[in-house]
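Hello forum,

I keep getting stuck at the same step: I have a sequence, I want structure tokens, and every attempt I make locally crashes halfway through. Rather than fight my setup again tonight, could one of you with a working pipeline run this one for me? It's a single chain of 260 residues.
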Amino acid sequence: MRSDLPDLISAAIGVKAECAERIARQSEVVVYGPNSVIYFQEDDTECLYLVITGYVRQTYINENGVVTLTAMVPRGRTFGEAGLLDGGPHLDTAFTVGATEVALIARSSLRQLMDSQPELREALSAMVSRRYRDYMAATRALYLPSLSLRLAHVLLNVAEVLGNQIRYRGAMIDCIGPIITQQDLGSMARGTRENVNKTLRGWEKAGIIALEDRHILLTDRGKLLEIAMNADRPGGMVTFDTGAGSGLTDSGAHGGGGLR
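Reply #2:
Ran it on my machine without issues. Output:
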């Protein structure tokens, strides 16, 4: 058993050290190669999964065959929770980005532990509830009326899950690394890569973000949040003057630069 696994389980699930230790002893650690499928959408839920190293992509395929990237899961976070309590099928497909180490915690083991560990039942119920709220928020954002609104929501969410703080021009700001590409952002925000690039370039000109070496720096998180919050207001969307006399979604004629 990996020495750091109990601590990862404790933080991810929200249980005390003793309970986390018992879960860790019944976990199986698997190393997956790059682009390996961990489970498919509609597969039976047999395990709860925890990323130890690397990243896992979760995608959803609708009835028309359109694939949407729903999440990128980093170290220390769980995935595959949807059917954990009721035994329902997985709602997405999960596969690795690069070589990825994952802890597999059998659903049957968790059910046995819940009988003797009441805190585990409560923690798992809370986890499934959080994931449901996350899913509803992401679904709502997908159907916002403009790419700017959708993309602002996606960037803020990705920064919260995957971002880190770096020093930029004397201030600590959120940074999204190259693990998320512009194509990924387009999939998550329901837009083409080209339009995502135009919107990001417009925001860069407006000083809302900076694009540096395939990283996205949220230089003015307040304005980005204002764009996202505008989804709850009647009427149009927030725009910022980029010096070219156009709104954010129309600016950025440079195209092709930034992330890949």
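Helices lie at 5-14, 17-25, 107-116, 118-142, 147-162, 182-189, 193-205, 221-229. If your local run keeps crashing, start a new thread with the error log.
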